[in-house]
Design brief:
The complex is a heterodimer of chains A (508) and B (366).
Chain A lengths: L2 E12 L2 E12 L3 E5 L6 H8 L7 E6 L2 E3 L4 H6 L2 E4 L11 H6 L13 H14 L15 H14 L4 E5 L7 H16 L3 E6 L2 H7 L2 E6 L2 E7 L5 H9 L17 E11 L5 E11 L3 E5 L6 H9 L6 E6 L2 E2 L5 H7 L1 E4 L3 H5 L6 H5 L10 E2 L2 E2 L1 H15 L16 H14 L4 E5 L7 H16 L3 E6 L2 H7 L2 E6 L2 E7 L5 H8 L4 H4 L1
Parallel strand pairs in A: 3-8, 3-9, 6-7, 7-8, 13-20, 13-21, 16-19, 19-20
Antiparallel strand pairs in A: 1-2, 1-4, 4-5, 9-10, 11-12, 11-14, 14-15, 17-18, 21-22
Helix pairs in contact in A: 13-14, 14-15
Chain B lengths: L1 H8 L4 H23 L4 H13 L15 H26 L7 H18 L4 H30 L3 H22 L7 E4 L9 H6 L8 H18 L1 H11 L1 H6 L4 H28 L1 E3 L7 H11 L4 H23 L5 H15 L1 H10 L5
Antiparallel strand pairs in B: 1-2
Helix pairs in contact in B: 2-15, 3-4, 3-14, 4-9, 4-12, 4-13, 4-14, 5-6, 5-7, 5-12, 5-13, 6-7, 6-12, 9-10, 9-12, 10-12, 13-14, 14-15
The chains are: A alpha/beta (508), B mainly alpha (366).
Chain lengths: 508, 366
């Protein structure tokens, strides 16, 4: 069969690095072609070249066998190439239809927009591909999964034949991921072609036909997904064998470090987010709070770290009440915090790597004295942590955090927080959006922290991570802990049921 | 050539390159306007040279006076306050706050200087520091108001500072007239020991109003640079400015820092008031409208990239355009040309993203 897209020997350079080095990607009509690679492997660059955002230094692009020059996204659209971005580009207070027609509104006389016609067409397309989107609801009122479908509809409305999905599942719940997979299969059965950018092997296995692997900007190979195991693909991606199992000894929990009693917290919408929650975390154990997103996890962490006021209850660290303390004093008492949103809380993206490494300790000796920064010491600390945690960046300590890959940004935060040597390390979704290599590394570090006699409180939405890393699992549902189990005495099924709200007693 | 092109394309150099390019483009645009309206662009540069260096180009080789230093003195008289208000705006901006109130803070500083300078009779060595600090404190207090309201009640600083500009104008007008010896347009002269002006500097610059205020400007530049780059306080301010959420996460007192930053910002503007009263004029004035030093400060900070050295350079640049105005008018060239140039420089600086991406395309282009 002929190829709809051929990107041949593409080379794209940025100052200091070759983001794509002689990369070839061929996509057949009607197939789902996965593009696999670690963060910074050059997947997004390659797709940006295809979408006309970057011009390659070398190589040619053919669409349906004809060589084309794609110099901007409009030309890409003309060739039927559409992209679903990771971060949606939607107007929140517009309806679905208004968002979809934005830029190519059907007109009636006197330049009035023919909304009725547009909304009918949107409905038609939506039904044809099983998207079931209501054309008249506002974007702000629909779920993230639905918003993504609106993005898909936007491309279909513009008659896109080749759809690029940029890490589409990063923001979705397991159910929504399942639905999305169904939609993607529906799309290819209708003759569309899909390029799926991802680093989640499970998803590739589930929907893709072919998989092209990139590593450090270089083309590694293209494989038939059905003949290749997840382990083989992971190896191609990382360049060495990857273990999905976390190596760890039996936990050896000792005394309670963090003791939370009857905690009540209210969220931004003045609703009770955490209800009467009690939990003990011991030295030498990884306690995992599992649950589906939005069940009070964020508020729970913010209450412990001091970003949010509590309504009632107590938070004791080593027998000392910390719930009334400032954030800084809690840090000094021994709370380390890897925040769930690394861009919002974890890093100052316009600071250098070195300045970010100092974020929790800049005011103490030796990093400063009498309010003056000791640049020499600060650099030493930064260089040591970069070395110890293998943080990779273009210009070492001088690199702006913004220009680093997600995995390395996360390593900066982990290095900084672990270097505080906290009594309790709170790790909120520490592997979100990261590739297998980085995930493996972070899990190893968390286990090491546990083995050094510290307590780890892990908050995770990923079932695999929960089962692999945790020693004890507390399931959070609507702000309450509905079950507490040992990680080695439970399975995915039981956890899944608890996360959905059935208590342990009712399961068996 | 290749190396030069790569230098231009490298994003690291853009921080310096973009203001320079914006200035060049601004002048080019001004020249084009001059050509279209039938003026000779050379007149502009002659006027600038005369304003900044005191050299009358036309008189070279004619035997007439070539070097007129008075204009240079007046040039610096104008540059001093706008560099200070520029520092004021830039300092707040580093914490993510937009201080439109430099004008009002300047007026409060000016009033405090006038009042202290007239009522106190002390030796210069004591009185001058009192007058300078008093002006800075008054400006700082005026800047602290929007900072405090922002921290306590989350009132937007832009709204409050605009309002406070009017409040300051009318309040200081009233207070100035209450000082003994004032008439309806100005106060009595400040005590001799409170003045920054000096016979020596006046003589050196053939009777311009040039005064020792430049020392205050230099000290202010050093303080600005030192706080922002060398202290943990400056580190906190920058963190708050770039990402208040991360600053809060790291245990910084975001609100307190915002209020303090506005107060320090106000103090810089207050110093501009000191320089005007104790240096340029020697008495307090009752103004019918604000003079625009605060708004010039916004332009200075914007072109200077919110840094100390940048504010100095852009203050010198905008000052030169201002000082060239009367000279050009003397040659029959409308002064609006210089306003067009300074305005278009600001527009080009605001286009920095576009300029930056055009520069990046230079790399590898054949």
């Amino acid at each position: 069969m002929e190829y709809v897209i051929e990107m041949l020997n593409i080379t794209k350079e940025f100052p200091g690095i070759k983001a794509n080095d002689n990369v070839t990607l061929r996509v057949k009509k009607g197939e789902i072609h996965a593009l696999l690679g670690e963060n910074g492997a050059g997947k997004s660059t390659l797709m940006s070249v295809l979408f006309g955002l970057y011009q390659p230094e070398e190589g040619i692009i053919k669409v349906r066998g004809k060589e084309v020059a794609i110099t901007n996204p409009n030309i890409a659209n003309e060739h039927g190439i559409g992209m679903v971005h990771q971060h949606f580009k939607l107007v929140e207070n517009f309806t679905v239809t208004e968002n979809i027609i934005l830029g190519m509104e059907p007109k009636k006389s006197f330049g009035r927009i023919d909304i009725a016609k547009a909304s009918k067409k949107v409905k038609e397309i939506s039904e044809r591909y099983g998207l079931s989107v209501d054309p008249n609801s506002k974007i702000e009122d629909i779920t993230v999964g639905m918003q993504q479908r609106v993005e898909i509809l936007k491309m279909l409305y513009r008659d896109a034949e080749i759809l690029i999905f940029d890490e589409p599942t990063a923001v979705l719940t397991p159910q929504e991921i399942h639905e999305l997979m169904k939609i993607m299969k529906e799309l290819v059965s209708e003759g569309k072609s899909i390029v799926l950018i991802t680093h989640k092997l499970k998803e590739i296995k589930e929907v893709s036909d072919k998989c092209t692997v990139l590593r450090k900007g270089r083309y590694i190979g293209t494989v038939d997904v059905k003949d290749t195991t997840e382990e083989q693909m992971a190896e191609m991606m990382v360049g060495r064998e990857v273990s999905f199992q976390v190596d760890k000894e039996e936990a050896n929990p000792t005394d309670v470090v963090l003791s939370i009693k009857n905690l009540n917290v209210i969220n931004n919408r003045k609703l009770q987010a955490v209800k009467n929650l009690s939990i003990d975390v011991k030295r030498g154990e990884i306690m995992c709070v599992a649950g589906i997103d939005g069940n009070g996890q964020s508020e729970f962490i913010e209450a412990i770290t001091g970003l949010r006021k509590i309504e009632s209850g107590s938070i004791m660290l080593n027998g000392k009440e910390i719930s009334g303390m400032t954030i800084r004093n809690r840090t000094l008492e021994g709370i380390g915090h890897i925040p769930e949103d690394r861009h919002k809380h974890g890093l100052v993206l316009d600071f250098t790597l070195e300045e970010n490494m100092a974020l929790q300790t800049y005011y103490k000796e030796p990093l400063s004295k009498n309010g003056l920064i000791n640049f020499e010491e600060r650099n030493k600390v930064s260089e040591r942590l970069i070395e110890e945690f293998d943080v990779r960046s273009g210009q070492g300590s001088e690199t702006k955090a913004r220009s680093m890959s997600g995995g390395n940004q996360q390593k900066v935060i982990i290095a900084r927080e672990m270097d505080l040597s906290p009594e309790v390390l709170i790790a909120a979704q520490p592997t979100r959006g990261l590739d297998v290599g980085a995930i493996e590394y972070i899990h190893k570090r968390l286990v090491e922290e546990r083995d050094s006699g510290k307590a780890v409180l892990l908050i995770s939405l990923e079932m695999e991570e929960v089962l692999n890393v945790a020693d004890k699992i507390a399931v959070l549902y609507e702000g309450e802990i509905v079950g507490m189990v040992d990680a080695d005495k439970t399975d995915e099924n039981e956890l899944g049921l608890m996360m959905a709200g059935s208590k342990r007693g009712e399961v068996s | 050539m290749e190396r030069f092109r790569n230098y231009l394309a490298n994003e690291k150099n853009h921080k310096i390159l973009i203001p320079i390019i914006a200035v060049i483009l601004g002048f080019l645009l001004g020249n084009i306007v001059m050509l279209i309206t039938g003026e000779n662009p050379i007149e502009l540069y002659k006027a600038l040279i005369q304003a900044v260096f005191g050299v009358k180009v036309d008189n070279i080789g004619t035997g007439k006076t070539v070097f007129v230093v008075r204009k240079v003195g007046e040039y610096f008289v104008y540059v001093m306050p706008i560099v200070l208000t520029g520092l004021s705006v830039a300092f707040a901006f580093r914490t993510g706050l937009f201080n439109i109130g430099a004008e009002g803070q300047l007026l409060m500083g000016a009033f405090a200087t006038t009042w202290l300078g007239i009522t106190l009779d002390l030796p210069a060595i004591i009185l001058i520091p009192i007058v300078v600090l008093g002006g800075a404190l008054a400006g700082g207090a005026w800047g602290f108001i929007p900072g405090y309201l922002k921290a306590k009640f989350n009132v937007h600083e832009v709204v409050v500072t605009i309002m406070l500009n009017y409040t300051a104008l009318h309040l200081t007008n009233f207070l100035m007239k209450e000082i003994p010896g004032s008439d309806s347009v100005k106060t009595a002269k400040l005590n001799e020991n409170a003045l920054l002006s000096s016979e020596m500097l006046r003589n050196l610059t053939s009777n311009s109003r040039f005064h020792f205020g430049f020392i205050i400007v230099i000290i202010a530049l050093v303080i600005f640079w030192y706080i922002i780059n060398k202290t943990t306080f400056g580190y906190e301010l920058k963190a708050v400015g770039y990402n208040p959420n991360a600053a809060e996460y790291a245990g910084m007192k975001v609100k307190r820092n915002a209020a303090l930053s506005m107060a320090i910002s106000g103090a810089f503007a207050g110093l501009a008031g000191v320089v005007l009263v104790a240096g340029t004029f020697g008495y307090g004035r009752v103004l019918s409208a604000a003079e625009g030093y605060g708004f010039d400060g916004i332009a200075v900070a914007l072109i200077g990239g919110n840094t100390a050295i940048g504010s100095l350079l852009s203050g010198l640049l905008l000052g030169s355009l201002n000082a060239a105005q009367p000279i050009m008018q003397g040659q029959g060239v409308p002064k609006a040309i210089t306003i067009i140039i300074s305005a278009s420089i600001i527009v080009f600086v605001a286009m920095q993203k576009g300029i930056s991406s055009s520069l990046k395309k230079l790399k590898g282009a054949k």
